């Protein structure tokens, strides 16, 4: 994957928007105004995603391409390198996990606005 692949993949998800809240060099993807992925335009070979703390440790132990989140809470965020060692499927799974964690943490009212009543009552 490259930065355009990541961007296209994220924007296909329901309720996602992109912005540059930290300046023109960091592209941020949010669901319901909560960020789930950051990618630097100057270092587009990696991205940061939120992760369940236990799973974060497992991924870091399993893959050298997964490191504690750079400039983030290292317990909850991973920096994932896209140097070709991880498959597209693995990268997408990490993005999906981050998106789901954030979407599930949204207040019910926001979930209803983004996903409709049926999905708001289930997991996002």
Write the layout of secondary structure elements.
Elements: H1 3-11, E1 16-19, E2 26-31, E3 34-40, E4 46-50, H2 53-62, E5 66-68, E6 77-81, H3 88-105, H4 108-121
Structure, explained:
The chain has 124 residues and is α+β, with helices and mostly antiparallel strands. 41% of the residues lie in helices and 24% in strands. The protein contains 4 helices and 6 strands, in the order H-E-E-E-E-H-E-E-H-H. A 6-stranded antiparallel β-sheet has the order 1-2-3-4-6-5. The chain is globular, with a radius of gyration of 14 Å. It starts with a helix and ends with a helix.
The tally of strands reads: 6
Shape: globular
Helix content: 40-55%
Low-confidence stretches: none
Structural class: alpha+beta
- SSE pattern, N- to C-terminal: HEEEEHEEHH
- Physical arrangement of strands within the biggest beta sheet: 1-2-3-4-6-5
Put simply, the count of helices is 4
Strand content: 15-25%
* Mean pLDDT rating: 91
Distance between the termini: 25 Å
Radius of gyration: 14 Å
Largest sheet: 6 strands, antiparallel
What are the salient characteristics of this protein?
124 residues; 41% helix; six-stranded antiparallel beta sheet; alpha+beta
Quick recap of the structure?
The chain has 124 residues and is of the alpha+beta class.
């Amino acid at each position: 994957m490259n930065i355009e692949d990541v961007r296209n993949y994220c924007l296909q998800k329901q309720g996602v928007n992109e912005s540059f809240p930290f300046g023109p060099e960091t592209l941020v993807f949010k669901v319901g105004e909560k960020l789930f992925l950051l990618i630097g335009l100057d270092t587009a070979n990696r991205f940061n995603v939120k992760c369940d703390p236990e799973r974060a440790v497992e991924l870091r132990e399993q893959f050298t391409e997964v490191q504690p989140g750079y400039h983030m809470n290292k317990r909850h965020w991973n920096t994932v390198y896209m140097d070709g060692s991880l498959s597209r499927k693995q990268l997408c799974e990490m993005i999906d996990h981050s998106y789901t964690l954030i979407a599930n943490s949204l207040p019910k009212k926001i979930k209803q606005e983004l996903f409709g009543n049926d999905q708001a009552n289930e997991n996002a």
